Amino acid sequence: MDMAPYRAHRRILTASLVGTAVEFYDFYIYGTAAALVFGPLFFPSESESAQLMLSFMSFGLAFFARPVGAVVFGHFGDRIGRKSTLVASLMLMGGSTLLIAFLPTYAMAGWIAPLLLCILRFGQGFGLGGEWGGAALLAVEYAPPGWRGRFGMFPQLGAPVGFIAANGLFLLLGLWLGDDDFADWGWRIPFLVSAVLVGLGLWVRLKIRETPAFAEAMEKEPPVGVPMGELLRSHALTTLAGTFAVVACFAIFYLATSFALAHGTTALGYPKEEFLLIQLGAILFLALGIVVAGYWSDGASAQRVLGWGCAATVLIGFVFGPSLASGAWGIVALGLSASLFVMGLVYGPLGVWLPGLFPVRVRYTGASVAFNVGGIIGGAGAPIAAQWLSDQGGTSFVGLYLGVAGFLSLLGLLLVRKRVVAA
To answer: Any one cellular component term from GO for this entry (predicted)?
Structure first.
């Protein structure tokens, strides 16, 4: 029995998983640092709430860089191929993350410090803008018939893997270091460690070949001159639908991670290490939800799984805030776990559903733009809006954001409910 195809599939799935895990590790360590230390270090203010708000604004900056990266990397991914574009996106993301470790604080350099932080944060988002779409295409365009959902879930699993690595390292640092040492220099260590992880991701990705779907498409006709132009001319409604469908997963994730950590350890007074441990346990339910969604998508359809997940997002909005503010660790853990499991149901199928909306010739651009613009709507404003809602009516009001996000994603699914998914 020839094992070569199976070995090739293992390499492809490993490359899609490892690459996104490294990328999301880089992205999450910023989110964790923004919640814990970046406010006083880079945005000093008399108001603790203002420090946190400014820190989250720098966090949200990357979401606006991601669509720019999606257009640029999508352009080259649809014209010259998936592999080389993925390598370039990983190098940009990793380089920006590593340089954050060497930044001076506001006390050292004044306004130059937050400016440099925001520039590197933009670089992180720019790189990630080209990462997810290429990783999803790498997996799905290699998938055997009937396995697209399960292959498409592998790049999605990079999210919980990267989160566990990021928050696990922050948890260890919190246990080893005192608060002063952590704020002084300890927060830089996760950004330094990213260099090792990026090197691992590059090593894996340089060993893969171009996807069969892209190679076959290039044999039949030349690449599109300007993929973004073709996308706007012929696939505008589909792109809009895909954008709306993405909103729910971003809203859940950044409320259950960055906002919950910041709000829980400040306004609600939970100990930092214990809360990080709770989040590490809850993130396993995100991985479980992704796996369930992958198998369910192959058994039914990605569209159906997304529909159920978006409806559940609306319901989760009613319990997220009260569970977070309950003061009981068991209820907090249950609320976060349920929220992240539901996120798995809306995030897991996106790896196959979004690429399936677009033909091969504009697939990298279409999937990347929809995913990252949806990230702005669902994720960039999530911690900021949640902080504002909490200031207005208490933590119980925060779930309103999830309800709106769930309805927007359901609207996106309705816009393409009769569309035949592209091969």
So the answer is: plasma membrane
Task: Mark 103-113 as b/e (b = at least 16 C-beta within 10 Å).
Answer: bebbeeeeeeb
**What are the pLDDT digits (tens) for 18-60?**
878 887 788 788 877 887 788 888 888 767 777 777 887 887 7
Q: What is the DSSP string of 285-341?
A: HHHHHHHHHHHHHHHS-HHHHHHHHHHHHHHHHHHHHHHHTS--HHHHHHHHHHHHH
Give the whole-angstrom CA distance, residue 332 versus residue 277: 12
CA 423, CA 357: separation in Å to the nearest integer? Answer: 9
Number of domains in the chain: 1
Are 309 and 346 within 8 A, CB to CB? yes
CA dist., res. 321 & res. 113, Å (int): 34
**DSSP assignments along 128-163, one per residue:** HHHHHHHHHHHHHTTPPTT-HHHHHHHHHHHHHHHH
What residues make up the domain containing 23? 8-206+230-415
How many Å apart are CA 220 and CA 135, to the nearest integer?
Answer: 23
153 is a domain residue: yes
Return the number of other C-beta atoms located less than 10 Å from residue 237's C-beta: 11
pLDDT at 63: 79
d(CA 150, CA 133): 16
Strand, helix or coil for residue 46:
coil
| CA 226/CA 371 separation, integer angstroms | 19
User: What percent of the chain is modeled with pLDDT above 90?
Assistant: 35
pLDDT of 179 over the 60 cut? yes
pLDDT digits (tens, 9 = 90+) for 224-236: 889 999 999 999 9
Residue 126 counted as domain residue: yes
Q: Which helix (H) or strand (E) covers residue 195, if one does?
A: helix 189-205
* Max CA distance (Å), the chain: 69
What value does the mean pLDDT take over residues 155-165? 90
- On whether residue 261 sits in a domain, the answer given is yes
What per-residue string of b and e applies to 338-374 under the rule 16 or more CB within 10 Å gives b?
bbbbbbbbbbbbbbbbbbbbbebbbbbbbbbbbbbbb
The mean per-residue pLDDT over the stretch 253-270 comes to: 83
Find how far residue 133's CA is from the centre of its chain.
11
Inter-residue contact 413 to 304 (CB < 8 Å): no
Greater pLDDT, 373 or 50: 373
Residue 292 CA to residue 275 CA, distance in Å, equals 26
Report yes or no on 118 lying in a domain. Answer: yes
